[in-house]
Design brief:
The chain is α/β, with parallel strands linked by helices. It folds into two domains: about 120 residues, Rossmann fold, CATH 3.40.50.2300; about 100 residues, Arc Repressor Mutant, subunit A (Orthogonal Bundle). Helix 2 runs parallel beside helix 3, helix 6 crosses helix 7 and helix 6 crosses helix 8.
Length: about 230
């Protein structure tokens, strides 16, 4: 699963991120409400782990804005407030579950598993951008009725680009999302795989393309939307 952790306690955040990665999850981590909200609105995650007591925008403010913007990603509140009124307020504002600090890491994993079993309101088995179609269930990609064979990494890269079509994705975002490691600026692995994708996706009259934003990253865009 792709998780977003919004937690300002660096010690706890590092512990939780490391444990979640060891459990097989991919984790984006933000230290304040403003950065967490930007991530929640800009990128697609399977679950948000949201601390309530945050600097700047607090957790409930982040949650309220997410729901106002129709982001339906499940949210697990991490809170040191264990009063009934505090829990009710969080759930009423759109949280899916809560966990009181301090917590056992095994319980955190159990709650993540429980939330992951709930039907997703945003499940899209087939993604379409311009003349590109990506079937997640069948693991197939088609362009103009032509099937395109992609490796697992290429498929994951294209899926992430299509889920965020029209948005600039940086090298570090692409590297962490597809390869699951902290990005090193002297690595060209993202550029190499974008090159692979471009060659495989080429077709006469194609309207969808991966545009390079020099010094920043890539955008999947269509001529139709230009």
């Amino acid at each position: 699963m792709r998780l977003l952790l919004i937690e300002d306690d660096k010690g706890l955040g590092e512990f939780v991120r490391r444990g979640l990665r060891e459990a097989g999850h991919e984790v984006d981590w933000e230290l304040d409400g403003s950065g967490g909200l930007r991530q929640a609105l800009a990128l697609r995650h399977d679950l948000v782990l949201l601390d309530v007591m945050l600097p700047g925008i607090d957790g409930l403010g982040v949650l309220s804005e997410m729901r106002r913007c129709d982001v339906k990603t499940p949210v697990l509140l991490l809170t040191a407030l264990d009063g009934v009124d505090d829990r009710v307020r969080g759930l009423d504002q759109g949280a899916d579950d809560y966990l009181t600090k301090p917590f056992a890491f095994s319980e955190l994993l159990a709650r993540i598993r429980a939330l992951s079993r709930r039907p997703s309101l945003e499940m899209e088995p087939v993604l379409r951008v311009g003349d590109l179609e990506l079937d997640i269930v069948r693991h197939e990609v088609r362009r103009q009725d032509r099937r395109i064979e992609l490796s697992r990494r290429e498929f994951g890269l294209l899926e992430f680009l299509m889920r965020n079509a029209g948005q600039l994705l940086t090298w570090s975002q692409l590297a962490e999302r597809v390869w699951g490691f902290d990005f090193f600026h002297d690595s060209n692995v993202v550029d190499v795989y974008v090159g692979y994708l471009r060659r495989k996706l080429e077709a006469p009259g194609a309207v969808t393309r991966i545009r390079t934003v020099r010094g920043m990253g890539y955008i999947l865009e269509t001529d139709e939307g230009a």
